[in-house]
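Batch job 17 of 40 flagged for manual review because the log was empty.
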Amino acid sequence: MKFVLELDMTSAAFKENPVAELGRVLRYWGGNIGHYEMAPGSGEVIYDSNYHEVGKWSITS
């Protein structure tokens, strides 16, 4: 299995402070991962702090 995380860091939230925004995304989704089955096909859309879609994570085989 693979854990795949893809983010588009061109949103306004990332432009203001890319280090802080990336840290927030990783903390939020890292803390939330326990609510998902760790199996191929699991995944979710990722939003920045302005609630704009900026990427996704997924579990693949």
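Reviewer: the log was empty due to a logging misconfiguration, but the result itself is present. Residues 2-60 form one domain. Unflagging and moving on to job 18.
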